[in-house]
Write the structure tokens for this entry.
Amino acid sequence: MALPAIIFLIIFNYLPMFGVVLAFKQYNYTDGIFASPWSGFENFKFLFATSDAWNITRNTLLYNALFIVLGLILSVALAIVFNEIKSRFMSRMYQVLTIMPYFLSWVVAGFIFYAFLNVDKGYLNSLLQSLGFDPIAWYSETKYWPYILVFAHLWKSIGYTSVIYLASIMSISSEYYEAAVIDGASKWKQIWHITIPALKPMMIILTILAIGKIFYADFGLFFQVPRDSGQLYEVTQVIDTYVYNGLKTLGNIGMSAAANFYQSIIGFVLVLVSNLVVRKIDKEQALF
């Protein structure tokens, strides 16, 4: 019965791994993948030999670190709030409203943000002008974008992850809460001593998986929402968009493969390290 899944895994997960050889080749379309000449580590110099290397690495790491920390806190908090709402109808309605952005593509989300941030006819500038303030050129002012990008990511993702945590909360036996009530525990103490410890394994697993992708940026977020504005590259350019723009300009497939290989290796190492740290703290909570 597992044969179709194994075949799917081999075709789509293991066979593409041979493409990593492109990272060490000077690829040309005439010779193909294996006949193209070797280039050693020349393709990796694209990432590290430019003045942008530090900038895109910093942006990728810091944004993802913020997404992991804030996403974890807000998703757990939102799941607990949903669980505490007594009206089942209202709880379901709030869940639907918060999870809906997750199903929007970043292309659509980019236009929604553009409707708010457009310099001439955007809702925010219209509001600022009605209050007597000058309009803001959102797509050329870098100082606002770290906040906008973090908000956009959380707006789109926390509804989905909160449902995962809510499912874990629903699986907690009600006997624990009944015993806590008999002992006189307040609602806050029930959350702190029962709900959050029960969520701890799920929080650790999702965090380790997120750390494994900390070198991967959400391409749609960083490309569509700032509309690839060159004036914002200092705070919006990440490894993925940098590689895309480089590939679009230079057409260098070997460079793109090198960047992807670099991201995969770092992500793999980070998963091992984070799991090792968790194992040192609490062996039972480690992923493997």
